[in-house]
Amino acid sequence: MKTNLFASLTAAAAAIVSLSVPAQAASLLAGESFGNDGIKFLENTKVDFNFNETHGSFQSTVKIFEVGANNQLTFIKDVFGESKGSDNGSANGWLGTCGNTVLVCTNSYTFEASKTYTLGLDSGGDGIVYSTKALNPFATGGTQQAVFNSFGSLGQADTTTYSAANQAQYAAGDPLANLVKIGFDDRGNGNDKDFQDVTLTVSASRIVASVPEPTTLAGLALAGTALVFSRRRRTRAIG
């Protein structure tokens, strides 16, 4: 009876005490994607977003959408948005910075397993573009409006500057294994494809159920055993 009681308490404690916590970083699995072909994880995955800067005159918001059948889009949440078009008009290439143009510069979202998502850059009346190429209806098959592992054509010391010649290498990233840069082009300025209109970084971690501490389970088992003995004593006293 004690053995059965301990097993029952162990199972109950595992169900009650288990909490969702980030696991150690790994890498994308076969069948997962994070790039121009969409965002999809096979396990619940928490993605952290960090704003970098903007270089466009439009006032835009980065959003998350779920992609359903026939590319039907369902809005999920805003990641961050500009409170104005830039810090100081056209100065410094329409530069927008954290604390000035964008007031909330970090955010996160747990992407559900096996669902497909996309990021959207919504510039209101100036249009919306998506990180998933097929969702941008500006040409047959869609157009690339976001690059991964690059902040676009801005000069960068780490040699990840986008150019038309190397665009293929910036089609996807792995946020589980590395910090991934993302650069959007909002189709302004004649769709100049500089991919620096809004830039951000992302990282990700798996969400798994934590295992209760052995001492917690043992304590619950002892408490249950004491309760059984207490009931036996009461039963004998009554008898």
Topology:
Blueprint: H1 2-17, E1 20-22, E2 33-35, E3 38-40, E4 45-55, E5 61-67, E6 73-81, H2 91-94, E7 95-96, E8 106-111, E9 116-122, E10 128-130, E11 146-148, E12 180-184, H3 188-191, E13 198-209, H4 214-238
Antiparallel strand pairs: 1-13, 2-3, 3-9, 4-7, 4-8, 4-13, 5-6, 5-9, 9-10, 11-12, 12-13
Helix pairs in contact: 1-4
In brief:
The protein is α+β, with helices and mostly antiparallel strands and 239 residues long. The protein has helices spanning 2-17, 91-94, 188-191, 214-238; strands spanning 20-22, 33-35, 38-40, 45-55, 61-67, 73-81, 95-96, 106-111, 116-122, 128-130, 146-148, 180-184, 198-209. The chain has one domain (29-208): Jelly Rolls (Sandwich).
Order of helices and strands: HEEEEEEHEEEEEEHEH
Estimate percent helicity. Answer: 10-25%
What Rg, in angstroms, do the CA atoms define? 25 Å
Number of helices: 4
The structural domain count equals 1
Overall description:
This protein has 4 helices and 13 strands. By secondary structure, it is α+β, with helices and mostly antiparallel strands. Strand 2 and strand 3 (38-40) form a beta hairpin. The protein is globular, with a radius of gyration of 25 Å.
Which properties best describe this structure?
single chain, 239 residues, alpha+beta, Jelly Rolls, seven-stranded antiparallel beta sheet, six-stranded antiparallel beta sheet, 4 helices
